[in-house]
Amino acid sequence: MISYDEIQKLPTEGNWIIATGPLTSGARAEAIQKETGAEALAFFDAIAPIVYAESVNMDVAWMQSRYDKGETEAEQTAYLNCPMTKDQYEAFIDALLAADKTEFKEGETAGYFDGCLPIEVMAERGRETLRNGPMKPVGLSYPHAPDIKPWAVVPLRRDNKLGTLFNIVGFQPKMKYGAQKTVFNMIPGLENAEFARLGGIHRNTFINSPTLLDHEMRLRSKPHIRFAGQITGVEGYVESAAMGLLAGRMAVAELTGQTLDAVPNTTAMGALVTHITGGAEAKTFQPMNVNFGLFPPLEGAKTGRRNRKDRYKAYTDRAKADWQAWLAPQAVAAE
Q1: DSSP secondary structure letter of residue 49
Q2: Which CATH number is correct for 16-41+208-334, 3.40.50.620, 3.40.50.300, 3.50.50.60, 2.130.10.10?
Q3: Any residues with CB less than 8 A from the CB of 296 and at least 6 apart, and which?
Q4: Strand order across the beta sheet in which 195-197 lies
Q5: Confidence (pTM)
Q6: Do β-strands 218-219 and 79-84 pair in parallel, antiparallel, or remain unpaired?
Q7: 147-159 pLDDT, tens per residue?
Q8: How many Cβ atoms are within 10 Å of 204's Cβ, its own excluded?
Q9: Dihedral through CA 19, CA 25, CA 28, CA 29, nearest 10?
């Protein structure tokens, strides 16, 4: 049976896949929010840029949480810090203000920026705003030169459990992509940084999947409902379609009594589904494209820009082999 009527409430029985996308209707969004909680559904992306940890210059940057907060060493070194001198800070502010930016249409950001301003808007409020906000140089010691106190510090926070990705804290930009690379590469320690994702702010609707979905993309509180596509917090047409295909395959396996092995997290689809169902940091969860930072590191692989091409080929070769191995028993079952 096919129905084109709007389903405004979450179904109470049967098996369902919700794939309503970034422009989920108000009634459906309200039903999801009622089930998952007010903090588990977002209506805007406030995406800070994400860099590959291996591309950060650690001769300049260092790991430390402000005031060494935390009980464990991991907590006390949860942030990666990039220092700036006064001249570097002033040049950064000048570049930030002059950069080519995207202008929002009327109503696109209504009621949104109270708690999360674009970095350019903060800079426009005064040249010292960022230095007294996300770039405040307090509670930190500079191990590379203990006698020097940085004028400003750009903090980056680990974005996944693997520790391969770091997001630039508080740096949600309005800048166009080309301008972002130019301006953010001015940050000491990020001069050669490679970006897994650039930043932006736009209308979207997505759930906090790491807290809500199990490893088979089922809603923990209502396992007869799966979520798929962009509403799960993936970014991009290919990624959204891939999560839809996986959700469908998982649903079929469950309905037919099959045992479906977990998709290898060494593959693109497996790495992405692992990320949204628990691999991402739930507190900072934002939509993500598939990228090599989501893959488990290769054992014994050399890092650095010169080795990147060989390393990425090794990632791909491993993914192909693991993907074929995952498909093999399913092909036999289908016969």
Answers
A1: P
A2: 3.50.50.60
A3: 162, 265, 266, 271
A4: 62-63, 79-84, 152-158, 165-168, 50-52, 195-197
A5: 0.70
A6: unpaired
A7: 889 999 999 999 9
A8: 22
A9: 90
